[in-house]
Specification:
463 residues, alpha/beta, FAD/NAD(P)-binding domain, 3 domains, five-stranded parallel beta sheet, 22% helix, 29% strand
């Protein structure tokens, strides 16, 4: 049997591992439009800071991963379409690769808004490794001082804090009325944003970008408040676009593979539609990761373009392509921002129609959303313990100049992670919150993600 996997991210790597647990001999071909081995997509701000090792970035073991699992890895091989009738994957250079089973794990593209001046040099997205390496080279060049980030989602916020740590002037423009609009409600977002404002990041909420201006290289961004004709010009030597992603569903155009659409309007509302076994509407084609809408923990189809969900879906797809019948018990859309001044995260479903339980402890606030006493989601915001600056960081030392020295070296947390993580046991299991659960939260059993050497409880234990 030949298995062709389109894409080389977390879903792809997880599928390879689970498939090989069952099937040691079938042919596996992995096609990637990038030249790198599988890397951690949620660590791009670490790449910008140059504080992550290759071992941590290429977390599956680099190119040795493909040798170990007997994979025919074909880098820089972009796929433009799939023909399900002939059972071939078609690449941009004209190759047609036959498959018995195919996994579509090609992820999502950064959304590029139709803004005048988007083509200027110094304007970039910040989603993949190419983007992160490019940003790092630009800021090392010595010509960047003022940076505008369009979009206050997790990537935009993480990059804003990273670049502020490195001594740049940073302005974040967001069209919604709060930062992290898909992660936090207004109250929690305002608490989170206050600490970043105190840190020196400028936020323009409910503003939209009118144009990006400059002569060859970007010189500024023109924005205006919503419901107003007043325009504001913001000086910028670099612009980062972080306004969301779109699943690469174009790969299945003109096929029998169904897209997740709104039943009433027929408009797309997600990625490639999969069942609980990660199968698409074509029995020989599976999908996993940011490209698909899978079944969530509540039994509904949702598009969850996040690292944990991609890994989970990849494992399920790999097992089932190998001949098992393993059901995905449902993904949870957990997300956290890896910022050092203040930490935040959320998971599940939340809204004004839910009952709310608030837990406050030791500079942390957790908001648990309930429906008939059962947990549907949660949000948290808190102030992490301060950490000393990492003076061994090579990018930091290259940036410190006479006029930046005092500013940069006064910052805390350089090169450190303090990303809080709340577990999903409440949602996945009985979903009922009781005093025992509250005591667990208060006593710091929930842990933080980041460097293993720096891993610490999300909350300090109370003796």
């Amino acid at each position: 049997m030949r298995v062709v996997i389109v894409g080389n991210g977390p879903a792809s790597a997880s599928a390879v591992e689970s498939f090989r647990e069952i099937d040691k001999d079938s042919e596996i071909i992995v096609l990637s439009d990038e030249e790198f081995p599988t890397y951690a997509p949620n660590c791009m701000e670490n790449v910008i800071r140059n504080d992550i090792s290759d071992k941590a970035l290429f977390y599956k073991g680099g190119f040795e991963f493909y040798e170990r699992y007997k994979v025919d890895f074909r880098p820089k091989k972009e796929v433009k379409a799939i023909d399900t009738k002939r059972k071939v994957v078609i690449t941009s250079d004209g190759d047609e690769i036959y498959y018995d089973k195919c996994l579509l794990a090609a992820g999502a593209d950064s959304f590029i808004p139709p803004i005048q001046g988007i083509e200027l040099k110094g304007v970039t997205t910040a989603k993949n490794l190419y983007d992160a390496l490019k940003i790092r080279e630009w800021i090392k060049g010595g010509k960047i001082k003022d940076i505008v980030i369009v979009g206050a989602g997790p990537i935009g916020i993480e990059d804003a804090e990273t670049l502020k740590h490195l001594g740049f002037n940073v302005t974040v423009v967001e069209i919604f009325n709060r930062v992290l609009p898909r992660m936090l409600d207004k109250d929690m977002a305002d608490i989170y944003m206050k600490y970043l404002e105190d840190f020196g990041i400028r936020f323009l909420l409910e503003h939209q970008v009118i144009s990006i201006e400059g002569n060859n290289w970007v010189e500024g961004v023109r924005v205006k408040p919503l419901q107003s004709d007043r325009e504001i010009f913001i000086k910028a030597d670099m612009v980062i676009l972080s306004v969301g992603v779109r699943p690469r569903t174009r790969l299945v155009e003109n096929t029998d593979i169904k897209i997740h659409t709104d039943e009433k309007t027929g408009k797309p509302m997600g990625g490639i539609l999969t069942d609980e076994y990660q199968r698409t509407s074509n029995p020989d084609v599976y999908a996993a990761g940011d490209i698909c809408s899978s079944v969530d923990v509540f039994g509904k189809h949702r598009w969850i373009a996040l690292f944990p969900a991609a890994q989970q879906e990849g494992y399920i797809a790999g097992y089932n392509m190998a001949g098992l019948k393993v059901k995905n018990e449902g993904s949870v859309d957990y997300n956290a921002v890896k910022t050092r001044e203040v930490t935040a995260g959320s998971g599940g479903i939340f809204g004004d129609d839910k009952d709310i339980l608030k837990v406050e402890h030791d500079n942390y606030l957790i908001k648990i959303f309930l429906e008939e006493g059962k947990v549907t989601g949660y949000q948290f915001v808190g102030i992490p313990a301060s950490k000393d600056i990492n003076n061994t960081n090579t990018l930091l030392s290259s940036l410190i100049r006479e006029d930046w020295g005092n500013t940069v070296t006064s910052r805390k947390g350089m090169g450190l992670e303090s990303s809080g993580v709340l577990m999903h046991n409440f949602i996945r299991n009985n979903r009922v919150v009781n005093e025992t659960h509250i005591n667990i939260i208060m006593n710091g059993i929930l842990r933080a993600l980041g460097s293993t050497a720096l891993d610490a409880p999300l909350f300090r234990r109370v003796l």
